[in-house]
Amino acid sequence: MVSIEAGLYIVATPIGNLGDFSPRAREVLAAVDLIAAEDTRHSGRLLAHFGIATPQISLHEHNEHERSGELVERLRRGASVAVISDAGTPLISDPGLPLVREARVAGVPVYTVPGPCAFVAALSVSGLATDRFAFEGFLPSRPAARRQRLADLADEERPLIFYESPHRIIATLTDMIAAFGPDREGCIARELTKLYETVLTGPLEMLRSRAETESRGEWVIIVSGSEPRPVADVERTLEVLSAELPLKQAAALTARLTGAPRNKIYAMGLAKKDQAER
User: Fold this and answer.
1) What average pLDDT does the segment 248-260 reach?
2) Are strands 160-164 and 219-223 parallel, antiparallel or unpaired?
3) Residue 262 burial by Cβ neighbours in a 10 Å radius (0-12, 13-18, 19+)
4) What pLDDT score does 187 carry?
5) Could you give the CA distance from residue 63 to residue 45 in angstroms, rounded to a whole number?
6) What is the C-alpha separation between 138 and 64, in angstroms, rounded?
7) What's the CA gap between 268 and 275, in Å, rounded?
């Protein structure tokens, strides 16, 4: 068995195809003293398949705050602990953040054992821009809160990436059409690396129609970024309004008239004001 240093290990596991389980991940999981798993029954099947008999303890959204203290105490005494989620990279829309934070405060070494991540896999095959993007994880489950979040993101120029459950995919795509428009390009992907892997690209309206015939597995949704507003139009509108109104009010009205983000407009106004005062 491989010998490893004491500390906390964040270990990525396959999102589907077991061939993606790295040799290093398997070695670490076999060598640590304890594995903190999101669902010990689910992870138990994966570990058994690879002959890994390391003891497990649960670490999920309902117990991670109180359990983190217990695990950090073990780590401070020299134990080695690995964190795994049901699939993919821990902490990415999965439990583990409180434990990592407490471990770092306590001076415990934290190591990464990288590997599969569903949203990275989907983005890499989507054909959408990959140089800059914003990962938003799961949207709120309540319709009103979900629509507000999407409205807040409507002018984001980077591609937006979301996770969504199979029973909410249609409602979410419907809300995205209302917020971003039916012709905004996007990609939806599910069952990545598995037998029924599905990756669909096209306008949001078409993606909603296609998703109605699919039901298996959680989805990754990628929405292309908003087209940037002409800077000259925004600057001119702000210039005219700020001559008559306080900057905060002028920025708010400029945002309503041009659709550009209010915080960016306000920052633009402050910069111009500072420049004029020099």
Assistant:
1) 86
2) antiparallel
3) middle
4) 98
5) 22
6) 19
7) 11
